[in-house]
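Listing S7. Sequence submitted for prediction.
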Amino acid sequence: MTITPDLTGMAINDARLEASRAHVDLDARHIDPESPPTQGIVARQHPQPGVQVVRNTTVTVWLRFALPYPTWGKPR
């Protein structure tokens, strides 16, 4: 068993490292499907921080990006 770390507010690369240290897997998802190709910040996660889980459980995180950013691939 392990405790889910608090990944909220972390850059995704830092969150991946922290998840690895806590022995959980990370599934990153974008809040905005047309987000830029930059490093996002963890806005929320499931399971919540501090929950006891089996090792190698997947923690899903949703990423946000600094605004404003260009809308990639959208026609003007």
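Caption to Listing S7: primary sequence and predicted structure tokens for the chain studied. Strands lie at 2-3, 25-30, 41-46, 52-53, 58-64. The chain is about 15% helix and 30% strand.
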